[in-house]
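Write out this protein's structure.
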Amino acid sequence: MFPRALCPYSLLVVMVAGWLAACGELPRPFHDEANPLAQPEEVIDVAVVPLSGVPVPMARRVAAAVAYHLGRIDIPATDGVATGARYRLTGTVTDDAVAPEVAIVHWTLFDADGNAVGVHDQGISGSVAEWEGGDSNLIGQVAVDAATALARVIADAEVGIAPPPAGSLAVEAVRGAPGDGNRALMQAIRRALVSNGMPVVEAGQPSAYRLMGDVDVAPPQAGRQAVRIVWRVVAVDGTQVGRAVGRAAQENLVAAGSLDGAWGDAAIAISAAAVSGIADILKRDNGG
């Protein structure tokens, strides 16, 4: 059985559809009938805030590029502050990515009242030099990928998806595991959380919290391999973006190569051991 070694730490981590409708007869000035164009048309738009966690020039370039590509798919957007914007899109960059990704952007969409209505985590693939140097091609690809993914988040917000249940948790991703570990752990941790009565929602849907797992398997030594799994719990609320709640870590030694294929029972055991630590983190965040 994979031992339960769960230790919380503080962790600094850190949708939108738009279109213009214009129709109706031409206005007739000074006519007694109500002018069908007298009222301003509703514009659904997005203000993309410069990223946090990167230098200001990079933050502004990415925000401008994302706004541009949202516009190209018929979602009116602008970078910076926009008075009257229906949505505000923020992004926080963290460097806790697992190769081949060099960074992660945690996007959060807020409505005009400051309520978080959607989230998306975007892994940045490329070289560290390209990312830190602000390579134009890489930024362009990041913006295209972000706009495509965020368009779905925005569409969900527009159809009025209900607010997330209190304490709800979305298992967003597991990264870095060999074999089928990423998929197996995703499935196993979801089942384990549900079995313990926790309100789990589908990844990408509005939730009070997001759960992400990072797996690191060390090179073999004397026929054994060290395995470390860090579960990160991040809250999204109307006052802070990507507020860090905590993390729980698991470590063990396994036979070399034993996790290169199907994880099977190992994923089930790991997930069962992780649940109590994750529940403790959420309990503390809610004043328990």
